[in-house]
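Notes to self after the Tuesday call (sharing in case useful).
The group wants a holo model before anyone commits to mutagenesis around the pocket. I volunteered. Ligand is iron/sulfur cluster. Logging inputs and output together so the record is complete.
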Amino acid sequence: SNEELHDRIRVAKQVLGDRVVVLGHFYQRDEVVQHADFLGDSFQLANAAQTVPNAEAIVFCGVHFMAETADILARPGQSVILPNLAAGCSMADMADIDSVEEAWEQLTAIYGTEPDETGRVPIIPVTYMNSSAALKGFCGRNGGIVCTSSNAATVLEWAFERGQRVLFFPDQHLGRNTAKAMGVPLEQMPMWNPNKPLGGNEVAEIEDARVILWHGFCSVHRRFSVAQVEKARAEYPGVRVIVHPECPMPVVDAADEAGSTDYIRKAIAAATEPTTFAIGTEINMVNRLAAEFPQHTIFCLDPVVCPCSTMYRIHPGYLAWVLEELVAGRVVNQITVPDDVAEPARVALERMLAARP
Ligand code: 13P
Ligand code: SF4
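Result:
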């Protein structure tokens, strides 16, 4: 039964004590969240992975790219465990290293590599945290940086100080929403089409570009629509609509605010008057917020449940299993990033960690 599982997890954690730290992303289901020593958005969890004191093992209740990041940032000898290896992210899979290298080759052939009179290089690669370690390594090797949804604007500013333009991958929506909010015109944000030579773009379009967007998207967040925002406003006059920046641009434009999971949480926590919130993000998190803040009315914009199916793959049964294996002295489901990838990826991640949300 579930209670039995929870007891097993509690007992194993008690035996392990400080030797293990369980990190959980806000999108995890409640049965997992209740066992997390630290809960956060992807920036906070990367930061936590770097700063957990002496734990021998970090059990990461989240998705694969987060566990890879934790392994890159963890101390030597610390092992990072992903309770279910099938917990990936479909968006992260939308940019592979070969396609990005190929795009980079074509773009640098157009722009060259010479800095302008102010010392800015022609192009800087920026990868969203939701990407493989190989892409973070690519950014580290090519003067680039990683961003999360909470520090994307700060990171783009960092990039524009050093470069005339940016190649942003894999999430077109986060790239577009962030750059638009910074005043970059839409016509200067062409989308790269990896299936055609030169991305299928006109050379002129590419020459004028300030942000070249990859074609990736989040299958959870792209479901949100302007119609849902309008319906919420019609049904609940005065409603505050807050969405995640992985939502398509028209949805972000129709909302009152957009921000990372932690931003959404803090916005609700800071509301002093009873308020109605319509939220555009993953359902497990929205339901938890609704339970945590009963003085407010909080609901998900999408009436049909929209969980992140891969986050959901972290079942408490897997958590119990990996913890009990640790008790028995065995490390299972370890995520290890090879040194030749981890070293440049760490460079790009440390630049990001310095760019506070
Ligand atoms: P944040 O935790 O940065 O808000 O990201 C949400 C997400 O999609 C993680 O996969
Ligand atoms: Fe990936 Fe979207 Fe799930 Fe985040 S919510 S892990 S971006 S599929």
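Two things stood out.
Residues 63, 89-91, 130, 218-220, 246, 282, 308, 310-311 surround iron/sulfur cluster (ligand 2) (CB under 6 Å).
Residues 2-88+311-337 form a domain with the Rossmann fold fold (CATH 3.40.50.10800).
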